[in-house]
Amino acid sequence: KNLFALIVIGILFGVFGFAAWLNSILVPFFQITLELSTVQTTLVTFAFIIAYVVMALPSAWVLKKVGFKSGLVIGLVVLALGALLFIPAAYMRTYWLFLTALFVMGSGQALLQTAANPYVTLLGPIESAAQRNSFMGVCNKLAGIVSQRFVGPILLLNVDALLIKLTKVSGAEKESILSDLSLRVITPYWIITGFLVALSIVIFFVKLPPVADDDDDNVEIQQAKKKSIWLYPNLLLGVLALFCAEGTESITSYYIIPYGQSMGFTTQASQVFVDYMIYIMLAGYFCGMFFIPKYIVQKNALAIASFLGICFAIGAIFTTGIVSVSCVLCMGFCNAFNWPCIWPLAIDGLGGYIKTASAFLIMAIAGDAVMPILYAQVNQWFDPKAGLVLILILYSVILYYALHAHKIKNWKFLPLKRMPVVPVAAD
Asked: Whole-angstrom Cα distance, residue 310 to residue 338?
């Protein structure tokens, strides 16, 4: 009965995936057009992801004021403004303006995700939330493929030949080439801006079914006598689990090419592994759609997936060549269950704290930025195999959450038990 609403939100998750995967194209593009150093290049992704951390709680405040649907509309408008900023940034070829555009887009994404994720989770029985979230994962990854296949060739067309040419020219001629290259973002981002504005108008006028009423949920909180969101272990430990989950996904996705190279494959051969990773993740999402909750409950699905992740990490550590690479690729299947299953377990029973809880979980996306840096540092200190130990630890945390931590209802140790001293009000 909520199929239309799921399709609408599925399109939104496609927007999330399109914008996020587009960053993997923008990083090398900006490195060339803006002549960035390695440190400056890392800030391209950082500016986008840090917006989730900075804007998650303000997004929850907005949702309390306007509700889920209006929050989606506002988020799309902010995202469109960020995309629009790419136009003057391209003409001016200004680094800080591109970073500002990315931060604004990330802020729009933060509001959209803070609204859309709990909405999908609550749009039906909590027991089947992972099934709906898996459908959103499919939409997310398919849109990511679209961004790679259509926008990537536009921005990076003949870029290798241009790089060779840039080494042979200087002065005004070099500036002219870089300016022409920078202008390539204009047409795609005009189209993206127009699509986002159109989608915001559609969502403004369509009727989306309501989810749990805040007033009823506040009664639930009063009966539970929990005066602060800090008193929900399943949420706070869920944030930790999701932080680790974001780490496993980002590490295996971002570093599959360097890992393939370390296992003896050429750069060209290793690039194919990125496609394999996406397809394997899609297979995981489809399994989540079809098997949860009819054949397996979401907590057990998460436990099995994280256990398999541990097994694949061990397999990758103790093997070499194509076998080791295949183990890393198979982690993509395990990663597909993390986000869909952790969300419903983390917000179960939170009642009127749902919007603030959603903001906490969205901030866990910071793992997408932190963990790859830590993984790269470990590899630099030791070798590519050493970084796999970090992945093993991350999967172990997720497994603990699936087996035990999500069931913890009260803190048994004093510091967090007294956290109401720093309360977060109910939504």
From this structure: 13
